Amino acid sequence: MEKILQVDDLHVSFITQNKVTEAVKGITFDVHKGETLGIVGESGSGKSVTARSIMKLLPSPPSLMTAGNIQFFEKPISEYTVQQMDTIRGNDISMIFQDPMTSLNPTIRIGKQIDETLRKHQKFSSAEAKKRTIDMLKMVGITNAEERYNQYPHEFSGGMRQRVMIAMALSCQPKLLIADEPTTALDVTIQAQILRLMKRMQQQFDTSIILITHDLGVVAGMCDRVIVMKDGEVVEQNTIEKVFSAPKHPYTKKLLNALPQINAKKEPKGQITLPKDIQPDQPLIEVQDLTQEFPMGAGRSIKAVDSISFSIHPGETLGLVGESGSGKSTTGRLLLQLQKGIGGDILYRGMSLNRMNTKEMKQLRKEIQIIFQDPYASLNPRMKILDIIGQPLDIHKLYNTKKERRERVEDLLQLVGLQKEHAMRYPHEFSGGQRQRIGIARALAVEPKFIVCDEPLSALDVSIQAQIVSLLKDLQKKFGLTYLFIAHDLSVVKHISDRIAVMNAGKIIELAESEELYSNPIHPYTKSLLDAVPVPNPAIESVRLNRNIERRNFHIKGGVLKEVSDGHWVLQ
C-alpha cells in the first residue's frame, strides 16, 4: 500500500529563556493511502505538536525540530517553501483544529471564511463557492444553512463552530486530513454523523486521516491502526484489534481502564452532609415555565428554552443532556442570571431570582457559581492564578489581610489537587486538566451551595476526565454541594448524576433517575442519543459507524411532561 506520509525519528523542542523542553522524543510512524491512523494520549503527550509539525505550523522560535524527517509523498516537508506550504495547506493537507473559536476569525462571516478556501485552492467563482459552502454546512448538520452562511462565529454554539471547522477542512477534499480532537465539542449524535461523513469522504476520495483524540470509542470505530503517546514518546503502536484486545504497555491499559462504561453499574453515592442552613426536604432550585428567545433577524426569533420546569434537591446532581443547540447551556446561564429569560421563574431556596436587583444578585452569587466549558477562555491570561482565584474573595470581601487571602488561595489549590506554588504562575503554564481544576477552585472560593457545571470535561482526555469527576464527587460529599451537570458525554453523565433531564429543541422531553433512563429510555430522541454513544469495541463500533443511517430529526412542538412511572417523566 502506498505511503503518503512518513515521520522518521522526529524530535521537537521548545526553547525558552530558562530551559529547553523536548515535547516530541524520536517518534516514527507512517500513514498509507486511504488509511486512518489514530493518535491517543493524555494532554501534553505531544499529539498536537506532532500534527502541527507535519503542517509546519509551529512557530520557530520557540519551537525547533532538532532531529528527524517528515516526508509527504516522498518529499521532505523541510524542503517546501513558505509559498508551497500555503498551497498545500487546506488543499492537499487539511487540519481540523481542537478549539474552533481561536481558529475562526471573529470579524468575518462564517460563509466567507469557507468561501476563501474554495476560491483560493479550487478557483471557484463567488457563486460556486457560496453554493458549495452551503452544501458543506448542511452536510455537517447545520440547519438553516442559507441563513447561517451570513452569521458570525459568536452567533454559533461551541459544537456548531466545530462543525464549521470540519466543513472548511473537508471542502477541498484533501489527500491527508489531520483531525485534532474534531468531535470534542460535539454531542453524540452529531459526533456519529461527522465520523460517518469523514468515513464516506475517505472511501470516496481515498483520503488518509490522522485522528487525534482522547475518545477511545471513536478510535475503535474509525481507525485501522493506533499510536499511543506518553510524554512525547510512542509507547505502543499496533492495529486497533490488538491494542484493544491485548494492550501491552501499562499506560495503554490505564487509558482503557479510565473509560467510562455506559453499561456499568453506578457506584453508590454515599452520605452527603448538607450545610446547616439548607433544608433537606425542600428543593434548592425550582424552575417554572422558563423561556428564552434569541433574535434571528428579519423579525424572526428562535426559542432556545421553551417553557421548561424542573427542580434540583439539596446535595443532588441533575444531569442535563442533549444535542448542541438544544438549550442546555442557555438554561444554565439563565439559572445564574447571566442571561435574563423572557418568561417563567427561577426560585433559589424559595427566593425568586428574576425579581432580584443587581445588589441582591451580587450578594447571592456567593452561593451560586459556574464552572465553564472552556478552561482556556475562562481564565484571564494576564492574571496570575493567585489573583484569578482571589478575585471572588476581593469582590465579596472574604479576607482581612493579604496573607489570609494568599493562604485561602493556596488551600483551594491544594483542595483541587494542585500545589501552593502554582499560585504565582499564569494560565498558559498549565495543561487543560490543570486549568479546569483552577476553574473549580475559583468557583469554590466563595463557598457556594449550588454550582452549574457547563460541559466541564469536554476539552479533557479520558484519564483527566476521570480525575475531575472524582474530584467533583469528593467536593460534593465534603461541602454538601448541589450540581447542575451539563454535558454531551452520556457515559460520564450517568456515573455522576442522580437524575438526568434530556433536552431537545428547547424542551425537556424526558426526566428520570439515571439508571432508569439508561436501562429504560422511553422517548425516541433519548433512544437515539444512547444508540449513538461510541463503544470502545472495534468490532461493534466499526459496524455502527459504517451503517448508512441518516440523522433522525425530532420536532418537539407543545406537549407536557407526564409521569409514566415513579419519577420517570416523558414529554407527550
Give a brief outline of the structure.
With 572 residues, the chain is α/β, with parallel strands linked by helices.
Q: What report would you give on this structure?
A:
There is one protein chain. The chain has 572 residues and is an alpha/beta fold. Among the domains are: 107-170, no CATH class; 285-518, P-loop containing nucleotide triphosphate hydrolases (Rossmann fold), CATH 3.40.50. The strands form 4 sheets. Strands 16-17-18-13-19-20-22-21 form an 8-stranded mixed beta sheet, with helices on both faces. A 6-stranded mixed beta sheet has the order 6-7-8-3-9-10, sandwiched between helices. α15 (402-415) crosses α16. The longest helix has 18 residues, at 188-205. The radius of gyration is 24 Å and the shape is globular. InterPro entries: AAA+_ATPase, ABC_transp_ATP-bind, ABC_transporter-like_ATP-bd, ABC_transporter-like_CS, Oligopep_ABC_C, P-loop_NTPase.
> Into which percent range does the helicity of residues fall?
25-40%
Distance between the termini: 54 Å
Please give the count of helices. Answer: 21
Which strand order does the major sheet show? 16-17-18-13-19-20-22-21
